[in-house]
Each structure stands twice: as C-alpha cells, then as structure tokens.
Amino acid sequence: MKMHIDQKYKALKADLVETILNFNSYKNGFGTGNRNSVKKIDLPNLSVVVKSFKIPVLMNQIAYKYIRKSKAKRSYEYTKKLSGLNVLSPTPIAYIEYFSWFGLKHSFYISEFLDYDFTIKDLLKQRNHPEFEQILEAFTRFTYTLHEKGIHFLDHSGGNTLIVKNNDGYNFYLVDLNRMKFEPLSFDQRMENFSRISPKKEMVEIMSKEYASLINQPFEKVFEKMWHYTHVFFNKSRHKKVVKDILHAKHIRELCHH
Is 88 exposed, middle or buried (0-12, 13-18, 19+ CB in 10 A)? Predict the structure, then answer.
C-alpha cells in the first residue's frame, strides 16, 4: 500500500488506514455508481469523504503503475493546484494506492466532508427557487473564472459543483476532479464546457446571456454554440441509455430461456 497524507493530517494516519481497510463495511454511501463508490465516514474528530475507484481494466492497471498517475493521485494533486489558483474544493486529506507486481489494483481519495446546500443538478428540480436565476448567473460567472484561469474541468456537470450559500451570495466547490486540463480555452471549448450542466433550454439561455455579457459577445452567438453542444451531449447520453436498456432486456430474456 502506498499512502500520501497531507502534512496537516499526519496525526490521522491510523484512523485513515483503518478506514480504508474497513471501507466495504461502511454503509453510508452516496452517489455510488457502477464505476466508483463514495462514502461519508465519521472519524473521531472529523467527517471525511472517501472515494474508492473501480479496479481498472488490465491495460490501465499497467498504465497507472508505469505511465500515468492514478485517478486518486490526480484528484489529490488537482485539488491542491486549484487551491493555489483560489478555486474552492473540499479540502484534500490523502490518497492511497494498492499495487500488485502487475499494476494498480485499488485506489482511494480522501477529502474533508463539506456540508453543502445543493448542486446545480438539484436546482433542476427547484424551478420555483426564489433565487433560481441569480444562482445560475453566479455559477456562470464562476465557470467564466475557471476558463480565464485556464482550468478546463472535463467533468463539469450539474452534480460536480457543490453550492454553499453565504451572506454575500454563493460559494462554488468543485468535486470529482480526476479529469482536468490546465490550458487556454478557445471559445468553442468554453461553450462545450457547459454541455453537461443541464438539458433544459431555459437554463442554457440564462447561462448564455450571462456568459455573453462577460466576454462582450452577442447573446445569439453564445447561445447557439452552448445549446448546440448541450444538445449533442444529452442526445448522445440518451442514445447510450437506450442501447444499454436494450442489451439489458436481451440479457434478461436469455436468462429466462435458460
């Protein structure tokens, strides 16, 4: 086991090791999908979030040992880099990697638990929220700030920004950070970066209007591109779901015949 703990949290090493060794026994998971597992775990003096990454396919096991950094290590390092750029994210604590002689097996990323209010994805279900437009506009300004700082968050989706309300408005915290690039973004890259946020046209219109004012471009130009990329992304997602459902139904039928 290879374990890197932030200097500030060295005293937690024993608790963190025990947490990883007993990870499967914890039941309070959230956002758990087929690929990765995320759980909130209460240590004696601190609540943490532990993300366990799925065991990579064979070729990636080799790549993560000899060529590329693991998703857990990238998550930790990108969070540190964002902090240096004054971009908020739940405080990183540690990452852990398990290697066999062959390659990477398991990896974990640990951060402090953030008690947030909601996400943009939650806002989709709250159209009557009294500050609906203001939140979207503030989120658009936040995204513009990322772009201006050369932060290309490849998983910039409705559920990957945690929103905390404060006296001056809202703070935005990025999560799920293992896929990022740090580079100047073209106009098209900026527009495509909004494609995963929401399939709702009215939300894209609000974001387009705000972004157009920030870059001093016509609303029509910004909306056309942003809506185009949004339409492409969600159409592709729906198509994948249809194919997956068909394959699943076929598998069930085959089992029934046997």
Answer: middle
